[in-house]
Protein 1
Amino acid sequence: MTIGIYSRCLAICAALGLVGCDAFIAPENNPTNIRLNEVDQRLSRVERVVNNEGLVNMLSRLDALEQDLASLRNDVETLQYSVEQSDGRQRQLYLDLDQRLGALEKTGAGAGVLDGQALNPGQLPVPGGTDRANYQAAFELLKQGRYEEASLALQQFMVTFPQSEYNDNAQYWLAETYYVTQDYRKALGEFQVVLDRFPQSRKLPDALLKIGFCNYELQRWDSSRTALSTVVSQYPETTAARLANQRLELLESEGR
């Protein structure tokens, strides 16, 4: 039985502000290491269920497993976003997670576009494909650094699949295409859409963090501080909160 989960992720550490920080944080306190270990533990629990449960029991547990795997998919996306340029230990741990998640899924997405063919406005990367296949292909374009095409693909994805469970993630990564290309004004508006349209999304802490980062880059110090402080107060145990604290400390040291 195939258990669906999407785990192919991207690393643009500068955008998350992790590269510069990792070199000065002890491994046991490193936010990326902590999150990697958390995901590793959760994945091990899922693997034990997959390996030990019989077919009948698997059917009865499928809904719960799919919810946990959906959560893992979201976390692994963000982890890959931060790990690819980080230290060797983080990279190796991520690769192990990625391989193990790959063993739990079967995917197929957009080979033509991903092999270098152009993507035109209004075109899906996987014409006739499922929402999952098209989301995965759009995300792969982002991983490849093809930001303009990724933006087009993500926008068309949300138009074509307005009820997809991946829409909150698609909106977040659309905003990221503008953030990484330093179009902070546009990124700010798109991250705000995540908050407005998807109030229950797991991407809320990260979107709010990026709103703080965008305002920082736009020299809107008070707005930046407000957003970052909200991350810390509302999501205190998240990696986003740790990064928000670091940026708040930077604001203070700069006298902003």
Note: DSSP finds 13 helices and no strands in the chain.
Protein 2
Amino acid sequence: MTPADLKALIRTVPDFPKPGILFRDITTLIADGAGFAATIDLLADQTLAAKAEAIAGMEARGFIFGAAVAASLALPFLPVRKPGKLPVPVLSIDYALEYGTDTLEVDPSAIHTGQRVIIIDDLIATGGTATAAVRLLRSAGAQVDQALFAIDLPDLGGAERLRALDVRVSALMDFPGH
């Protein structure tokens, strides 16, 4: 399947979570076995080309895509978690949201100094979570210079925020608007 075929599998839900938003829902993509497999294969090809040593995914949908790519390539998967989910001492980072803040955490013992880690997630929008994940993983000693996404919403500027951190960004498909 091509990225255009995959794009056709993404459901658009108007006015969610608030009026004026066009929500790009991956549920229909992952519910299509061939489409999901093709998405993982395309992301895995890019991961191989980048010579990744591990893959990080942010909770929750980054777990779906990142863990599947990691398993297909027999690479370690590093979960970037919401607060209070890891049973060991963690590194954490607070970051700004549109209305408030949030926190991400990682188990620093799972990351090796200098390890080449690629972030994989379902979608890049404003980039708040992804930039926080890059900073967090780097603080744990990882080398993070690439991020892969199934979907980019370029009008929201998230990919540019990552590029400002010297992270190469690639997405299989993009959608205009928000």
Note: The chain is about 30% helix and 30% strand.
